[in-house]
Design a protein that fits this description.
Helix content: 10-25%
Low-confidence stretches: none
Structural class: alpha+beta
Length: 243
């Protein structure tokens, strides 16, 4: 299928699809190239592969190269890297790169190529977490479930295993808007030291409408977990200063 170039470019001149030939004078200016690619049958995907070229760090750019496969395998090549020349073989600025990742404009608005030739973390989707944050001297790894049934023993154990596989000083924060099953919480607290604290939808409601500090909530939940090995103590069962 052939598409008219005017439809692909939106009426822009072909030169507008080329890259900046050099570092811009404005330190706030940036250039970015990204691609999201999903094989139609689900065999593989590139969820996001891209480069962020910021004038303030022009020679040391951020790159992200993500690859995923149907069997759950994931490769992540995120990092920073040096910059190749933007000038291609034809003398035009058609190349943007950062370390192991390079994009080339072969035909403006029609065809680009991307290559990645470098190290990548090799893992599985089951090992991934939703985020992390630091509170005082502790680092929390986060798993969040905003929809679906209550979380039971199997999911608690799975996330606990992810946390245990990270650094020894990591803790886990499991957020489930639907809550947790009593049987799951009881089974999880027996026979093992907890490395998790849990927050449910009612806890979040208490934080929002009682104006309890989220920091205080996490501190108190962590203290209770250390004292009782209970991974989930509802906010309404704790004492906080109201503001």
């Amino acid at each position: 299928m052939s598409i008219e170039i005017e439809k692909l470019s939106g009426g822009l001149a072909l030169e507008k699809d080329l890259v900046l030939p050099g570092k811009p004078d404005d330190p706030e200016m940036r250039e970015s190239v990204s691609v999201w690619l999903f094989e139609e049958n689900g065999a593989f995907a590139m969820p996001r592969t891209g480069i962020e070229a910021e004038a303030s760090s022009w020679e040391d750019r951020r790159l992200q190269a993500n690859f995923a496969f149907a069997n759950g395998r994931v490769l992540n090549g995120a990092g920073r890297g040096p910059v190749p020349s933007a000038i291609g073989p034809d003398g035009r600025p058609t190349v943007i790169g950062a370390g192991a990742l390079t994009f080339r404009c072969v035909e403006p608005f029609r065809r680009w190529t991307v290559t990645f030739d470098g190290p990548a973390l090799d893992g599985h989707v089951s090992e991934q977490i939703d985020g992390s944050f630091r509170l005082h001297s502790d680092t929390y790894l986060v798993e969040a479930k905003w929809h679906g049934p209550k979380i039971g023993f199997v999911d608690l154990m799975a996330f606990s295993g992810k946390v245990a596989g990270k650094a020894a000083w990591a803790r886990g924060l499991f957020v489930s808007n639907s809550g947790f099953t009593l049987d799951g919480l009881e089974a999880f607290s027996r026979g093992r030291q907890t490395n998790l604290i849990c927050v449910d939808g009612l806890d979040l409601y208490e934080v929002l409408f009682r104006r309890v500090s989220l920091v205080e909530v996490l501190e108190e939940k962590a203290r209770c977990a250390a004292e009782t090995n209970r991974t989930h103590v509802p906010v309404r069962d704790l004492t906080f200063r109201t503001r």
